[in-house]
Design goal:
2 domains; six-stranded parallel beta sheet; Quinone Oxidoreductase, Chain A, domain 1; globular; 23% helix; alpha/beta; 347 residues; Rossmann fold; seven-stranded mixed beta sheet; 8 helices
C-alpha cells in the first residue's frame, strides 16, 4: 500500500518548529481515517518538548507534538465500531509515524487511528456533541488530566480544596472539583497576575503561593488550612512545600488526614522539604499520569450541559500553517499567553 503523506506540525529540534509533510503509517484493516479541524499547543508538555526538556527515552527529534486535536471521520474502521463518516470526534494521540518521532502526535492534518499506532493503553476516538464547538472539544482533552486525579479523592461536605496552577489543567481541576463537590470551597493558588485574573472567574478564592497567601488561607478556613490539594502547576519546586498548605490531622482513628494529589508534568526532580515538616502532617499523597480516556466523554457531557465553562479562557486562534511563529510567540509570552489553538479547517 502506498505511503500517505500529510501536513503536520513538526518540532525539528529544540526551539525550532515547522509546518511540513510527514508520512503516516500504512492503513490497516481496522484504521479509522480522520481529518483535523482544530488542535492546540499544550503550554506544559508541548512547550517542555519545544524547549528540549523531554528525557531522551521518551522521544527524539524531529517529532510531531500534541495530543489536543479534534476533527471529522473521513473513512470508517473497526478501531472505532459504531462511528460513522462525518462524525465530529476527539482524535488525540497517534504514537507512530514513518519518518518522524511521535511525541504523542496529534498535530497532523490527516490521522490514521488503529490498534498499531494508537493501541496499548489506548486513546480512542470520542464523539463530540452537536452543541459543543470545535474549540471546546479541543479544550476538553486536558480537562481529563485533573479528572483522573480528582477521582482519587473521597469528598466530604463543606471541605476546602486547594488547586495549584491556573493553566488549562489547573482551571479545569477547579471546575471539576466544584462540579463533583458543590459544597466545597475551591481555592486556586497562582503566582502570576494575568493567570490570577482568569482564575477569579472559576475559583471561590485566588491566593498567592507565599506567606500572604497562607495568611489568607488561614483566614478563609478559620486556621484549619486545606483538606485536599490538587497540584497542577507542573513546577517541580511546589510539591515539596505543600505541607505549608495542608491541614493537620490523623492523630485519632476517626480523624481524617489531608490528601495531596500530584497532577503536574514536572520537568525536573521533585525535592521535598525536611522530613520532620511532613511527618507531623500524617498526609496521604497520590499521583496520576496523563488521562483516563473515558473521561473525554464525561468532560464533553459537562460542556454540553453547560456545567463546564470555557468562555472565560483567553484562547488565541492561529492558522495551522503558522506553527513556527506560534511556538516562538508562546515561548516569548510565557505565562501571559494562556492557550493557542490551531485552525486546520481551510486546509
Amino acid at each position: 500500500m502506498a505511503n500517505v503523506k500529510t501536513l503536520a506540525t513538526v518540532i525539528e529540534r529544540p526551539m525550532e518548529a515547522n509546518f511540513r509533510e510527514i508520512t503516516l503509517t500504512p492503513k490497516k484493516a481496522d484504521t479509522v481515517v480522520c481529518k483535523t479541524r482544530m488542535s492546540a499547543i499544550s503550554t506544559g508538555t508541548d512547550m517542555k518538548t519545544y524547549h528540549g526538556m523531554q528525557h531522551p527515552e521518551q522521544c527524539y527529534f524531529p517529532l510531531v507534538p500534541g495530543y489536543e486535536n479534534m476533527g471529522v471521520i473521513l473513512e470508517e474502521g473497526d478501531y472505532a465500531p459504531g462511528f460513522k463518516k462525518g462524525d465530529r470526534v476527539m482524535i488525540n494521540e497517534c504514537r507512530k509515524y514513518m519518518d518522524v518521532c511521535s511525541a504523542w502526535g496529534g498535530g497532523t492534518l490527516i490521522c490514521h487511528k488503529d490498534m498499531d499506532n494508537a493501541g496499548g493503553a489506548g486513546d480512542p476516538l470520542c464523539k463530540v456533541p452537536d452543541n459543543v464547538t470545535d474549540e471546546q472539544a479541543v479544550l476538553a482533552y486536558l480537562a481529563c488530566v485533573p479528572l483522573k486525579g480528582i477521582e482519587k479523592f473521597t469528598f466530604k461536605e463543606k471541605e476546602t480544596i486547594l488547586v495549584f496552577g491556573a493553566g488549562m489543567v489547573g482551571l479545569s481541576g477547579v471546575q471539576i472539583c466544584k462540579i463533583m463537590n458543590p459544597t466545597a470551597t475551591v481555592i486556586c493558588v497562582e503566582p502570576h497576575p494575568y493567570r490570577q485574573e482568569i482564575a477569579k472567574f472559576y475559583a471561590d478564592y485566588v491566593i498567592t503561593p507565599d506567606e500572604k497567601g497562607i495568611a489568607k488561607l488561614l483566614e478563609i478556613t478559620n486556621g484549619k488550612k486545606a483538606d485536599k490539594i490538587l497540584e497542577c502547576s507542573g513546577n517541580p519546586e511546589v510539591p515539596g512545600t505543600l505541607y505549608k498548605y495542608i491541614k493537620d490531622g490523623g492523630w485519632r482513628d476517626d480523624d481524617e488526614v489531608g490528601h495531596i494529589h500530584l497532577n503536574g508534568d514536572y520537568p525536573e526532580k521533585l525535592i521535598f522539604d525536611h522530613y520532620h515538616r511532613w511527618f507531623v502532617k500524617n498526609v496521604n499523597m497520590s499521583m496520576t499520569c496523563a488521562i483516563k480516556w473515558k473521561g473525554k466523554g464525561q468532560i464533553l457531557q459537562w460542556m454540553s450541559e453547560g456545567k463546564f465553562d470555557t468562555s472565560h479562557l483567553p484562547i488565541e486562534i492561529w492558522e495551522a500553517g503558522k506553527a513556527k511563529e506560534a511556538f516562538e510567540y508562546q515561548h516569548k509570552k510565557g505565562m501571559e499567553c494562556f492557550k493557542i489553538l490551531f485552525d486546520w479547517r481551510d486546509l
